[in-house]
Amino acid sequence: MTQNVNLAVLIDGDNIPSANVKEMMEEIAKYGSPTIKRIYGDWTRPGLAKWKKLLLENAITPIQQYGYTTGKNATDSAMIIDAMDILYSGKVGGFCLVSSDSDFTRLATRLREAGMQVIGIGEKKTPNPFIVACDKFIYIEILKSQAGEKDETKESTKPAIDKITRKEINFISTTIRDISDDDGWAFLGDVGSLLQKKQPNFDSRNYGFDKLTPLIKSIDKFEIEQRENPKSRNKLIYVKIKYKNNTNTKKN
Question: Which residue among 44, 55, 80, 123 has its CA within the 20 to 30 Å range from the CA of 176?
Fold first, then answer.
């Protein structure tokens, strides 16, 4: 997603903590201009009181939605209806759905079917169907960890960084093989894009690295090579898998 695309940011106030909203908005700005910012919830409930000051500071419009029926989430319905109205208005090129609720899985799928880019933001408890329905999914815990702050429950420790396991290494290796040349080299930018398409919640920050390059360098199985870029002073970074036989031939 390019940074000049207009985004609609829709927040499930009943499902997302108010802490680190500033970091959320800064993260969203990396992917586009948030021209529509709305948060949905029953603002008569004391549980949403922490949001009220933050709404003014971040120019987020509160949408009142009463819970008419016990056990039914009216907020979800209001947010979905608004999303479809915004889609048909043609005013945005993408959506950011902020929720940890799997009820928005179908909405994310429908928006992508309409050609919209969809970014999801939620907690690590978010069900996988909603995650994979998005183009990219970002964990709130990672934004919280980057800010060096504690969450609303005032836990004494920051969220733990995930450890790289054999599963993640094999995932990266397979992706490199998918797009590598005859000598086994793959452009790291293309590797990163394909990793994201395969697994929307793949993020180097989940493992304690700001970017993909240092993450790859930390894994002994991969080799990095910098090449001259004829169009820029910035180097082009390529990656390949190290094989035990030390040959340049890719495995079949």
Answer: 123
